[in-house]
UniProtKB/TrEMBL annotation, chain A:
NCBIfam families: spore_III_AC (TIGR02848). Coiled coil: none annotated. The chain crosses the membrane at residues 6-24, 33-52. InterPro entries: Spore_III_AC (IPR009570), Spore_III_AC/AD (IPR025664). This is Stage III sporulation protein AC. The keyword Transmembrane helix applies. It comes from Halalkalibacter akibai (strain ATCC 43226 / DSM 21942 / CIP 109018 / JCM 9157 / 1139). It comes from the Bacteria. Keywords: Membrane, Transmembrane, Transmembrane helix.
Length: 67, 170
């Protein structure tokens, strides 16, 4: 279900957010830069949490014989 | 199919970024044109002794597009409607300001200038014109400063935000 694409997606988000952060910081909008980084972090965290949740469900299904 | 959508999104956000940058770079340009227009209005009043309506018609012919609309409107109102100079000035400012890239502060300067128009003799009028010119000069400096600081940022920000949306939806 998940292949290596998800990792690349997260890496892409990281790179683009880092670039936006640099651009904003260079132009003296540091508060905005921090917000962008924070939002990017939250999005990635949400993605990772969903995937880890899936993993736990699968483990539960394998070892405890549940749906 | 996915690729076409991605390209469309990136093109759209890049375009938005460039449009924003264009507005930013239009503002000092139009301020400069406005300054030139007011200077020639001064010349028309001081040396040509031309009536206001005729003078602004001349200026409208000389100036490029968004500024000329304003003076055209002003001349039209002076000639064809029974309005005082200030009313005509105010109304034409209201109508044509949306077409320019200039902001509220310049509008205020122009309004103040309009209030003095046709109230004084030539020397007083010239002083008011000088005052308006120096206000506009200051605004132009500020606009140039902003352009230098934000133009590149808005362009790259448009492209990068498009890229971010595409990656998020991949």
């Amino acid at each position: 279900m998940y292949d290596v694409n998800t990792i690349f997606q997260i890496a892409g988000i990281g790179i683009v957010v880092a670039m936006i952060h640099t651009v904003l910081k260079q132009m003296g909008k540091e508060d905005w830069a921090h917000w962008v980084t924070l939002i990017g972090f939250v999005v990635v965290l949400y993605m990772v949490a969903t995937i880890v949740d899936d993993l736990f469900q699968k483990i539960k299904g394998v070892f405890l014989f549940q749906g | 199919m996915k690729l076409i959508g991605a390209i469309l999104i990136i093109l759209a956000t890049t375009w938005v970024g460039f449009e924003g940058a264009k507005r930013l770079s239009d503002r000092p340009k139009q301020l400069r044109q406005l300054k030139v227009a007011i200077q020639s209005l001064e010349a028309e009043i001081m040396y040509g002794l031309t009536p206001l309506a005729e003078a602004s018609e001349h200026i409208a012919k000389q100036m490029p597009k968004p500024i000329s609309n304003f003076f055209e409107q002003f001349a039209y109102r002076l000639l064809n409607k029974q309005e005082t100079a200030f009313e005509a000035w105010e109304e034409s400012l209201k109508e044509t300001w949306g077409q320019t890239s200039m902001l509220e502060s310049e509008r205020e300067v122009m309004m103040q200038f309009g209030a003095t128009l046709g109230q004084h003799d030539r020397e007083q009028q010239q002083k008011q014109i000088k005052l308006t010119l120096s206000h506009l000069e200051r605004e132009e400096q500020e606009a140039k400063d902003r352009q230098h600081r934000y133009e590149r940022m808005i362009k790259s920000l448009g492209f990068l935000s498009g890229l971010l949306i595409v990656i998020l939806m991949l």
